[in-house]
Each structure stands twice: as structure tokens, then as C-alpha cells.
Amino acid sequence: MSDAVATPTLLYLVPTPIGNLEDITLRAIRVLGEVDTVLAEDTRTSGRLLQHLDIKKPMLSYHLHNEHQQVQRLLDRLERGERMALVSDAGTPGISDPGFLLVRECLARGLKVECLPGATAFVPALLKSGFGAERFTFEGFLPVKKGRQTRLQELAQETRTMIFYESPHRIVKTLGQLAETFGPERPASVSRELTKLFEETVTSTLAELHADFDSRTAIKGEIVLVVQGAKIEKPSKADKYDEA
């Protein structure tokens, strides 16, 4: 047997529920209770979760607007042996949320990082869409302005199922642009308020989804949009022989 001491984990990426608090895992609860500090995208949101779990821990704000300034300070503390858990407001940190930069720098310094499995919004939305899940591409949020049309044109011939995150106030515009670029008859699925009381998934064509959501007086909740990939046109046998 080796006498080597296992390298301790110093940074944990801990998924948190995207709505239903019952989706927290037993391992996540244990880790949150054992670490020295919790890094939170919004300390108020994560504070309510810790209070619900009856966990009292020091919290530090770590979000999109301060992560570059915070990384060096956090690395110094981690190198002194402080153990930290990184959480986002909901779901798995690092997926369309801060986390990548800190993980990269930890690994560069030889600091051990663990990522716990757990809640994330795009998996249930993908499976509920009924589209192929064997091969898919996660696109996250489309560019808001610069590069948006270019990216849509690039994805028009993508044959894999595509997954996007979108905000309630931009979903109508996005559905309209997708219908124009991908074609109005392309099948798609919109999921919102996943795991919550008013969870909704609507599957139809892009044109029909655009008309549906455009007619609504109010749209609430974070949205996952799943779009079926482009169909590959296979040449007929007659075409094959003609070419020969």
C-alpha cells in the first residue's frame, strides 16, 4: 500500500436546485456543511438556500462582474488550505454562470477541484422536447447584438439538436429570428419555470411558437429553448444512377 496522503479537495463546484428545493443532493448538503466558505453568485439567493438547509457559513460574492478581481484573492486563500464551495443562483456553476476562470487557475496551480453532479436546466428541457438527445450542442445564450446574425447563420445547417438559454424579455425576438433563419416549420420546444409550480413546455414549429409567445401579455421565468437539427437530404436512388 502507498503511504502517500491523498490530495485534499480545496474547491467544490456545487449544483443547487433550479426551482424545487427537493432537488438538492445529500452530497451537496454535506459539502456545503463541511467547507469553510461558500462563494455565491448572489449571496441573498444562496443565503436563503443555506438557511433552508440550516447551514451557517461565511459567504463571499463571486459573479460575472467581479470574478477577475476576486480570483487572485481566492487563490491565495485556497493555497493556504481554505476549502470553498462555489454555487450559482441555480443549477451547476460554470454553465452560463461564473466558474470557468477560477477552475482554470486552480488547476494551473495544482489545486484539486471537484464538481458534484446535480441540477441543471438544459437536461430536462432537452429530454422533454422529444428531439434526438444522442447528439446535441449546447449554445447557451446567443450574442445579444454583435455577432448574433452571424451565429444564427452558422447554426442554420447544424444537424444536432440545439439548446439555447434565453431571457423572458428576449424570447419572442429570438423565436422570430430563428424562424426567419432556420425556416418557420423547424420543430422547437420552449421550457420555462422548470421544476417549479407553473412549469411549462410547449413544442411546435418555430413560427407557431413565435406567434404563441408574442400573443402573451407577460412571460416569466428563465427559458430553455430546444431546436431540432437540420435534416440531412439524402440523394434518391434515381439521382445516384443519373450521376453514374
Automatic annotation (TrEMBL):
Pfam families: TP_methylase. GO terms for molecular function: methyltransferase activity. It comes from Hymenobacter citatus. The gene is rsmI. Its main location: cytoplasm. Keywords: Cytoplasm, Methyltransferase, rRNA processing, S-adenosyl-L-methionine, Transferase. SUPFAM superfamilies: Tetrapyrrole methylase. It catalyses: cytidine(1402) in 16S rRNA + S-adenosyl-L-methionine = 2'-O-methylcytidine(1402) in 16S rRNA + S-adenosyl-L-homocysteine + H(+). Belongs to the methyltransferase superfamily. RsmI family. Residues 11-209 form the Tetrapyrrole methylase domain. It is found in: Cytoplasm. Transmembrane segments: none annotated. HAMAP family: 16SrRNA_methyltr_I. Catalyzes the 2'-O-methylation of the ribose of cytidine 1402 (C1402) in 16S rRNA. Its EC number is 2.1.1.198. GO terms for biological process: methylation. Signal peptide: none annotated. This is Ribosomal RNA small subunit methyltransferase I.
